[in-house]
Amino acid sequence: MRCCWRFAHAYLQRQQAAGSLREDVLGEDAEDLAIDAIAGLFERDEEGRFPQFRRYFEDTDPQDRSDSDLKQDLRRLSCSAVTDWLFEAHRAADRSLSNQIRSLKRAATGRGDAHLQRRGQVLWLEISGQSPPGREQGREIKGRLMPLETLESHLTGAVAEASSTSDLLEAAIDTLRVHPDYEAAYPLTRLAQAMRAARVRVQSVTEHDGPTTHPGRPLLKPEEIRRYIDRALSALRSEKRLTYVGEGKVTEETYEAYFGALRDRLEARFVPPGDPELTHHEALAGHLSGLSRDEYRTQHRSRFEYLERQAREALVSQLQEVI
Asked: Which of 131, 234, 257, 299 could cross-link 135 (Cys pair, CB 3.0–4.6 Å)?
């Protein structure tokens, strides 16, 4: 438990430093918050076992994993638990998200292909029933959680044709059901956030014939979005060059590879139809030949994902000014 607490505490401290922790809602003591955030992981079932850990490590043989790999697994599990807990804790302070969650609960009630199930302190939507024609039938609910941005990207394509939360839920259920690499379930609060973000993205930067079109507002074409991406990356490249290249943290070649990969990531997310499956590692591996996942995690992940956040925020800020 102490190992999980350390990971959770470090994650919350990073959120606190970045200004993402709602201290007005949660308080300022990250040590105590970390205990609350991971408490659900250590809830026992009727037989005294830990269902959250059993589910997460169901397909893992500890003897085949090194100590460092197992620590990485625990870090991911702990940070995921903290993220879920933060969503739930912040929900009361976010009225629009609360409304989306209530609407989503109503839409999910009574469906034959999905049901709501509480796992510890978190309410999940779990998919059941038959898969669509041509898809794998009877897939069990297991596997890793689909990344939020991946689900959001899938839902973005359905927003134009979705006239209600029920329609968008239908698209979410189909997405979760037909991807065998991911668990056929999703935390309800996180699903509501993905739906809201998909609607915002469509309303802000895509051109379509759906009900969210706003006559008289400038709708951006893909080539226009690419120009804004180039502008955001050019400014960030100049701003951070001294810190990264000048101080010897990375070589000039690696620095340029970062920005080539950043462009791919932003286009995958903001330029329709996008590529929701493109990961950070895959994007950077396209510009650094032979980059392994372990090398990415140990040598590049923190820098690259920090730059990706900075670039995304700069781009969104520019698009908001235009829209």
From this structure: 131
